[in-house]
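Page 37, continued from 36.
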């Protein structure tokens, strides 16, 4: 089912200006069995810009229940890099001026507990909120207090009644997934204690535009945030954007710190980045129309490169069956006739087929035993970790293809 907002901004209800069309797309994480091919779900993925809120967003989005469910196929802890990142995130929060030993910490979208475990093991009062039941179960089994619910204003009231107000509200790569973002912000405002803060990070729109990393746009990412849009969004509920911290995760993310109005003095970096965003044009629809043109050019070049290699008899496989790769493969029309398989470390995906293009998903062991001549790096944001892990592939003459920030063979 589609969550249609009739082409209107989810923040202001103003009419969206459509800036890019990715055509028919399946669910980003909708890995499937062969017998499910004929009943696969598709929707038309367009992105629009609101001139008032400065928010870039999907025009339509599949329902949350279709995307996050009991068989959700993403576990944060499978990445060593992400484990290190979340350990540092936890240390940053624990050493910040906002944290006290008595603090009650909540994480929205806690996944398998990769971040919250650093609070749990220190005996800090905490609560994880994770809508995907299978992932929430893992977190609970790891000793992390977790509930499997979708967060909104109503759930905030229930948490306050049962646990009290939160001093730290965290989220990582979660806020951009939630279509009813106004209810979430109202819930955060209610939930936070007087000196409480919300600290969350998501893929950063400025980096997406700079790198033409269009694979950050898929069904789960209903929004791509800028500091301008976050300031507007939380300002509607009387909250302040008080700090910004650029991150390298997911190919470029931003960490936002939000507080009740007047609770803290804004850090100077906030105004610096807001000014840079205006210079970059993140406040104008025209910027994203130009971005859409670059996306099309990138997609054409990637498919041409793969077709050329295939014509020369080269064996090509994909590496990492990410949600992001669904957008790239379907928009470019790269199917099983071009990629022999996609290697991935997630057991839940192995033996299945990629959404839309129906490329078989194999294990990393299969990749090592049946190496291609070229591997399309679908998790380009984990390039350093993957190339280090698969050093033998490169030493034996294997080549890596990437499309970010431009289409090229990395080893050349």
């Amino acid at each position: 089912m589609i969550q249609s907002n009739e082409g209107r901004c989810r923040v202001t209800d103003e009419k969206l200006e459509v800036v890019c069309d990715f055509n028919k797309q399946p669910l980003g994480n909708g890995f499937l069995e062969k017998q499910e091919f004929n009943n696969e779900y598709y929707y038309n993925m367009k992105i629009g810009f609101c001139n008032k809120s400065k928010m870039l967003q999907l025009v339509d989005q599949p329902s949350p229940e279709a995307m996050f469910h009991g068989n959700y196929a993403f576990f944060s802890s499978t990445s060593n890099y992400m484990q290190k990142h979340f350990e540092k995130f936890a240390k940053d929060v624990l050493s910040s001026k906002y944290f006290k030993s008595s603090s009650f910490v909540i994480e929205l979208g806690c996944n398998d507990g990769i971040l919250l475990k650093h609070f749990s093991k220190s005996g800090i009062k905490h609560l994880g909120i994770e809508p995907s039941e299978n992932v929430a179960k893992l977190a609970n089994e790891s000793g992390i207090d977790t509930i499997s619910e979708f967060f909104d204003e109503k759930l905030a009231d229930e948490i306050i009644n049962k646990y009290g107000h939160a001093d730290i509200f965290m989220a990582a790569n979660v806020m951009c997934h939630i279509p009813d973002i106004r209810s979430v912000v109202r819930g955060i405002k209610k939930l936070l204690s007087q000196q409480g803060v919300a600290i969350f990070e998501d893929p950063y729109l400025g980096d997406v535009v700079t790198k033409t990393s269009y694979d950050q746009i898929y069904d789960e990412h209903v929004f791509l945030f800028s500091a301008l849009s976050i300031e507007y969004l939380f300002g509607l509920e009387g909250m302040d954007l008080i700090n910004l911290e650029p991150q390298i995760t997911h190919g470029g993310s931003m960490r936002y710190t939000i507080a009740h109005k007047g609770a803290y003095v804004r850090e100077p970096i906030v105004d610096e980045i807001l000014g840079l965003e205006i210079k970059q044009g993140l406040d104008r629809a025209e910027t994203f129309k130009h971005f859409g043109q670059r996306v099309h050019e990138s997609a054409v070049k990637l498919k041409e490169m793969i077709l050329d290699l295939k014509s020369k008899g080269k064996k090509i496989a994909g590496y990492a069956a990410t949600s992001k790769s669904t957008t790239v493969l379907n928009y470019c029309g790269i199917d099983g006739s071009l990629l022999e398989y996609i290697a991935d470390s997630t057991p839940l995906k192995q033996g299945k087929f990629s959404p839309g293009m129906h490329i078989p998903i194999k294990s990393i062991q299969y990749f090592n035993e049946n190496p291609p001549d070229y591997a399309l790096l679908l998790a380009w944001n984990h390039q350093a970790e993957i190339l280090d892990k698969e050093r033998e592939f490169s030493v034996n003459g294997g080549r890596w293809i990437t499309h970010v920030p431009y289409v090229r063979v990395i080893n050349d």
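The CA atoms of residues 325 and 378 lie 6 Å apart. Flag for discussion at group meeting. The longest strand covers residues 192-203.
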